[in-house]
Design brief:
globular; single chain; 7-stranded mixed beta sheet; 6-stranded antiparallel beta sheet; signal
Length: about 250
């Protein structure tokens, strides 16, 4: 297997010593630009790893994150041109900032497949989220034998027509949008009168079955836990390190 290994072991975090390792492997046959966002307003630690970088095909980057890494996400950006300002500098997943996303408001523009993490001291909570749509296949594995979260399928080509896109210069769909993002329907977005698990079942989300059938081990809608295959945990005591693979 060919690897262009770009290892960056950043053991110091902005708010404490990092004690876990996150590895990001781009197994796609093209360059992507991974990005990372950590909500630094809820008391957790923030990694010192830059919030965005270029990842050529087959490249690997490893960095440390703090034991109390909270409300964090990593995603991939596609077809980027950072000479353009603002969040539309990538065809999918762009963020405020440039190559490095703004640490305060640098979440990705949908559609974007997300790896989400929350280390609460008792458990590591993690998932592959399609709530904001999908732009790249993704898998989360770990060193502790805990469950695998994944959406290993490129959802763009077979995406329902009203959700398909955006498209690259060749006309290929590089994303599949969520019905919520396309329509703003409260029953799909779990907002307004549908803001609870009881009032926002997955049966009210058009195209839920397309995403969940293709990627059963992913988090597809805002209250997807009842599916039993959406949100995963690993006991903190196992001290798992995690690998996020794009295009597994």
């Amino acid at each position: 297997m060919r690897f262009a290994v770009l290892a960056s072991f950043a053991f110091a975090a902005l708010s404490g010593v990092a004690t876990r390792q996150i590895t990001v492997y781009n197994a796609c046959p093209f360059t992507i630009w991974p990005a990372m966002y950590t909500n630094n307003h809820i008391g957790g630690g923030v990694p010192s790893q830059p919030t965005g970088w270029e990842a050529p095909a087959w490249s690997v980057k490893t960095f440390g994150v703090p034991e109390n890494w909270m409300s964090a996400r990593i995603w991939g950006r596609r077809n980027c041109d950072f000479s353009r300002p603002g969040p539309n500098n990538c065809l999918t997943g762009g963020c405020n900032g440039g190559l490095e996303c703004d640490r305060e408001s640098g979440t990705g523009v949908p559609p974007a497949t997300l790896a989400e993490f929350n280390f609460d001291g008792s458990n590591d909570w993690y998932d592959v989220s399609l709530v904001d749509g999908a732009n790249l296949p993704m898998r989360i594995t770990n060193t502790a034998g805990c469950p695998v979260a994944e959406c290993p399928v490129d959802l763009g080509p077979n995406c329902p027509p009203e959700l398909k896109g955006p498209f690259d210069a060749s006309g290929f769909p590089v994303g599949c949008k969520s019905y919520c993002k396309v329509t703003g329907d409260p029953a799909a977005c779990c907002t307004g009168s549908h803001s609870t698990a009881e009032t926002c079942p997955n049966t009210g989300v058009k195209y839920y079955s397309y995403f969940k059938t293709a990627c059963p081990n992913s988090y597809v809608h805002a209250y997807d836990e009842p599916s039993g295959r959406a949100l995963y945990t690993c006991p903190t005591g196992r001290r798992a390190d995690y690998t996020i693979t794009f295009c597994p």
